Amino acid sequence: MSRSKRKAIIKDRPRNFKKSTFYWKRIRRIINNLIRNGDEDLPNPKEIINDYDYCDYVYDMENNKNDPETIKKYRRK
User: Fold this and answer.
1) What is the pLDDT of residue 55?
2) Total tally of structural domains belonging to the chain
3) In terms of CB atoms within 10 Å, which end of the chain has fewer, N or C?
4) Greater model confidence, 27 or 8
5) Domain assignment present for 2
6) Is residue 5 a contact partner of residue 61, using CB atoms and an 8 Å limit?
7) 49: number of CA atoms within 13 Å, CB side?
8) Cα distances (angstroms) measured from residue 4 to each of 7, 11, 23, 38, 75
9) Averaged over 45-54, what is the pLDDT?
10) pLDDT at 52 over 80
11) Number of Cβ within a 10 Å radius of residue 61
12) Nearest to 67 by CA among 55, 59, 77
C-alpha cells in the first residue's frame, strides 16, 4: 500500500450525481424561464456558463498554517 497523500484542496462539486447533470440542470432552468417569459432569442449554453469554470469555490487548505489538524484531515485519501 502506498503512503501517498493527496493535496488538501476542497472544491465545490455535486456529491450525489455527475458534474454534467449539475451543469445542464442550470442551463435548462435558465432556458425554460426565458421560454416562459416569451423570449425568442435563446442564448447559447456556453454563453450562460463557461465550460471551464463552473466550480463556485475552491479552498486551499494546504496553506492553513494555524491548524495542522485540518491539513491532516483533508489530506486523507
Assistant:
1) 62
2) 1
3) N
4) 27
5) no
6) no
7) 17
8) 10, 20, 32, 55, 10
9) 75
10) no
11) 16
12) 59
11 grid coordinates: 472544491
> Does the predicted model carry a pTM greater than 0.85?
no
**Residue 67 domain flag:** yes
Evaluate whether residue 58 is within a structural domain: yes
Give the domain range for residue 19. Answer: 9-74
Rounded to whole angstroms, how far apart are CA atoms 28 and 58? 25
Report CA Rg, the chain: 19
Q: Which three cell numbers stand for residue 9?
A: 484542496
CA distances from 52 to 2, 35, 38, 46 (A): 32, 26, 30, 10
Asked if residue 61 is part of any domain, the answer here is yes
Residue 27 C-alpha cell reads as 442551463
